[in-house]
Amino acid sequence: MINLRFLKEIKDKEIVSVGFKEQKEDYFLERSDGSRVLIVGIEKLEKVNHRRAILIARKIISLAKANRIKRLSLNFYDFSFPELKISDEEKAELLATNFEMANFEFTKYRTPPEDGWSFVKEIVITGEISEGVKKAFRTGQTIGDGVNLMRELVNTPALEMTPEGFASETKRILKNRNIRIQIFDKKGIERLKMGGLLGVARGSMNEPRFIVLDYRGAKNRAPLVLIGKGVTFDSGGLNLKPSDAMSDMHMDMSGAASVVATMRLASELKIKRNIIGLIPVVENMPSGKSYHPGDILRTSCGKTIEVLNTDAEGRIILADALCYAKRFKPSIIIDVATLTGAATVALGQRAMAIFSNNEAFLEKVKNLGELSGDYVWPMPLWEEYEEDIKGTFGDVANTGKTRYGGAITGAVFLYQFVKDLGIPWLHIDMAPRITSIEGEYLAKGSSGAPVRLLLRILRDGIGINE
Ligand code: BES
Ligand code: ZN
Ligand code: ZN
User: What is the CATH number of domain 149-460?
Assistant: First the structure.
């Protein structure tokens, strides 16, 4: 993490101070005493809203890295814009979170350059800073670090991040953090009768795992259940993906990684809630032992799944996790999954698709998305769509009957496994945000979404059934 310090003013000439100016270009200004100022160009100061402020915070780091500046200073009150209407605490948290996110790179497998990595090491925040604002800076750093933890897990190649590898990483990450961890291996999963998870797992020599995380931050309160899709590599199975569609598929465990990172943050920030994390982890591979199109799998709650396409594997493993959730009598269930390419076709790469059986929940999450910087957009879950996933020989089919509305059929499929609980449920199809994109000042690879959103939901609550 960046070394954050707070000083009223700064005398060290080695430290580059940051300023903002209404113009296109960014440049360095040399003062007569030899110190330098990094002027960040902002085209229209009055247009700096919450969304743009996030990008400016990251751009500061990105410019510093490009110019190999290791130490920066910023006057907290210079980061004020007429359209950025948030409290000082929120501003501090926004700055620190995005500093950390922009300072992350996946270097684990790279030889360091001779002159070292270009990470920013220290930022001095100047001005009269209250204790509350200092604390908010620290919280922001913790959140950014949590987001980066997810990115590290997601970016790690499938050869290392097998289901077993993911389970042991989860153990390592959550050790001594007041979270109970239970890991079921193949035998355990057989005992749980999770025919969906076992079916998808068949083709791979790497056996599946089912991870249960239990964080108790409140007494006697029904837990919120977080479920994450953990496909450590999605080749498509016998319905093999075309080669250009396969290259990012070691990241198909992004939902799982977001749950692990969010649970760690919940414990670090002492969130006053009970949270259960459920993570089915599996590799989807073709082989002589693979499950086939036409197979019918029996989930642990008895409902059968007719496999029409082995590449629609995420919903199959999530079905078993949703079945398992029931035993906790949860108040709310949220699942996160890189479920469909169709969600990306619908929204582009700038927003995740959200679905819920509760309109108010959907609206709330849309607003929290805006505040968190993990943007989401609601899509319909009308009962008419259920027609599209009716099975012929099994209860539900794992794909729709046409090429259309793939993100919706995925969501409607999952809904069949929560429907009878009658509680608010949210499905986040995060496929659109699986990787970062040009212009958001984030390193290539995992975007870290939706950790910030999940944490917001946990902190603010949704005001329904809780
Ligand atoms: N993991 C993929 C979806 C995906 C694709 C996520 C690209 C992120 C980037 C998922 O398992 C899948 O293959 N879905 C299929 C479903 C189809 C067979 C009904 C898809 O989207 O094509
Ligand atoms: Zn797939
Ligand atoms: Zn997948």
Answer: 3.40.630.10
Beta strands in 292-401 (DSSP E): 296-298, 304-306, 332-337, 352-356, 376-378, 396-397
The band of 465, judged by pLDDT with boundaries at 50, 70 and 90, is confident
Task: Name the residue among 287, 317, 283, 278 with its Cα closest to residue 161.
Answer: 283
> For residue 38, how far is its CA from the centre of ligand 2 (angstroms)?
46
Tell me the residues surrounding ligand 3 (ion) with CB < 5 Å: 231, 234, 252, 314
- Mean predicted confidence (pLDDT) in 253-258: 99
Q: May I ask the CATH class of domain 3-127?
A: alpha beta
Best residue among 229, 252, 291, 340 to mutate for probing ligand 1's pocket (most ligand atoms within 8 Å of CB) is: 340
For residue range 207-239, list pLDDT tens digits in order.
Answer: 999 999 999 999 989 999 999 999 999 999 999
Question: Ligand 1: distance of its center to the CA of 88 in Å?
Answer: 41
Active-site residue (options: 193, 241, 326, 366) = 241
**pLDDT tens per residue across span 3-60:** 999 999 999 999 999 999 999 999 999 999 999 999 999 999 999 999 999 999 999 9
Ligand 1 atom at minimum distance from 241 CA: 13
Instruction: Please tell me the distance from the alpha carbon of residue 109 to that of residue 113, in angstroms, as a whole number.
Output: 12
Q: Is the CB of 253 under 6 A from ligand 1?
A: no
> What tokens does 85 get?
């209407």
User: Could you state, in order of their start, the residue ranges of all structural domains in the chain?
Assistant: 3-127, 149-460
Average pLDDT along the chain: 98
Asked, as a colleague might, if the bond just before 330 is cis with ω within 30 of 0, I would say no
Q: Same topology for domains 3-127 and 149-460, yes or no? A: no
pTM: 0.98
Mean pLDDT, residues 335-353 taken together: 98
Note if 241 is an active site residue.
Answer: yes
Contact present, 126 and 79 (Cβ < 8 Å): no
